Amino acid sequence: MPAMTLHDQIARARDRLVRAGVSAREADLDARLLARHVLGWDTARLLTGLRDAPPPGFAAPFDAAVTRRERHEPIAYITGVREFWGLPFDVSPDVLVPRPETELIVEEAVTALRESGVWASPGRPIIVDVGTGSGCLAVALARECPSARVVATDISAAALRVARRNALRFETAARTRFVRTHLLSGLGAAADLIVSNPPYVPTADAATLPPDVRTHEPPVALFAGPDGLSLIRELLDQAADHLRPGGWLIFEFGFGQADAVQELISARGRCTITRIRSDLQGIPRTAVVRRLDR
Fold first, then answer.
1. Among positive and negative, which fits the CA dihedral 146, 164, 156, 212?
2. Tell me: the pLDDT tens digits for 46-68?
3. Which residues have C-beta within 8 Å of that of residue 16, sequence separation ≥ 6?
4. Which end of the chain, N or C, is less surrounded by CB atoms within 10 Å?
């Protein structure tokens, strides 16, 4: 009987994941990614080694990783890494897994800062990332704007440890202050820009979430009251007091919440919504808000 190749082991892993309810396309990608993770290989090295026997010591850790994925643990928690803004961020079950659509916040923030004319001002801009989680927004913006000073807040001490680790890894920690607090509570400095990917899932929708999200990602980073807007309301209530006149607030919201978000902003009167960005599926996703200059 021919010896089992690396390709054979990956194919078996893929079949296990499909039987566990992972889509066939995702199962194929996940099995290959887990093999690369265990082997420490890049894609090219994996492709050239598929017809060879697996290296010694591969089978047991690969099986353990596949078993975790069978239980619908997010692949990012198994590998400990998720790419965001072209950077490999450390992640753990203490933080939300960064999503591609959240990169819209970075895009809009860079545009807003350039429009504000504070991009290259001495000691400016001051950026606050509310609910920083892994620190992906804080780090990405600090790297995009080397003159920026950043404050990263989170209610979770464990999340702040992950964010600090990423800031150190990507050499932005010297310009970043990490604060354990609820939203903007206790912050004094007037910001040029506030960004946030707040919790926005209605609690009643918990059962409809994919099992990867529902059973593994931190609830504190997901759920925000019966309509999913309780944290966004609080953020809007606080933001104007922490922004300079003409400063920007840019945040993510959930499916079907665009009209409600616009009404909440209009009702407060101190800020105006300048645009809403949709993601690649055409779903309104990101609100760009500016404090009125008065």
1. positive
2. 999 999 999 999 999 999 999 99
3. 66, 70
4. N
